[in-house]
Specification:
Elements lengths: L5 E3 L7 E7 L4 H15 L6 H18 L4 E10 L2 E8 L20 H8 L2 E7 L7 E9 L3
Antiparallel strand pairs: 1-2, 2-3, 3-4, 4-6, 5-6
Helix pairs in contact: 1-2, 2-3
């Protein structure tokens, strides 16, 4: 079950987009669509596929490694030359780690791809105090306004 995408006004003047979806591999397609719609709305069609691919990898990681029934996908434009893509899941214990997969490995390249395509990426705990309830994995893209 996916909720509808919501465009939210932001201080920068660019609307931000969020979408809540099931923590499942097929939700990656919804995340790609969210990224494409957001970047099209901002006139950044040239960067839309890069943002969609990054979103897809972040959703795939959450679907495979996190827990809980839902995730939240976000696409924001905090500055004219930057796009922010993030996925929030409910598993603070499994933090993203880049691997060095062997040549025959069929998994383990997602964060390498995110690292190569993004300007910067990282993760942060969600919640307060010493008991986080989840994490946000994010990436930023440098874009040409």
């Amino acid at each position: 079950m996916t909720s509808t995408a919501a465009a939210q006004p932001r201080r920068t003047g660019y609307p931000g987009y969020t979408l809540k979806g099931r923590r499942a591999p097929e939700t990656a397609e919804e995340g790609r669509c969210l990224a494409r719609v957001a970047l099209a709305a901002w006139g950044l069609a040239a960067e839309a596929e890069t943002a969609a691919l990054i979103m897809s990898e972040l959703v795939a990681n959450a679907a495979r490694h996190a827990r809980g029934h839902t995730i939240r996908m976000t696409v924001n434009r905090p500055a004219g030359n930057q796009v922010y893509v993030a996925v929030i899941d409910k598993d603070p214990l499994k933090v993203p780690t880049m691997l060095t997969p062997g040549p025959d490995a069929v998994q383990g390249r997602g964060l390498l791809l995110v690292d190569a395509l993004s300007h910067q990426w990282g993760w942060a705990y969600m919640g307060t105090g010493t008991r986080p309830w989840g994490k946000r994995v994010w990436a930023t893209l440098a874009v040409t306004p």
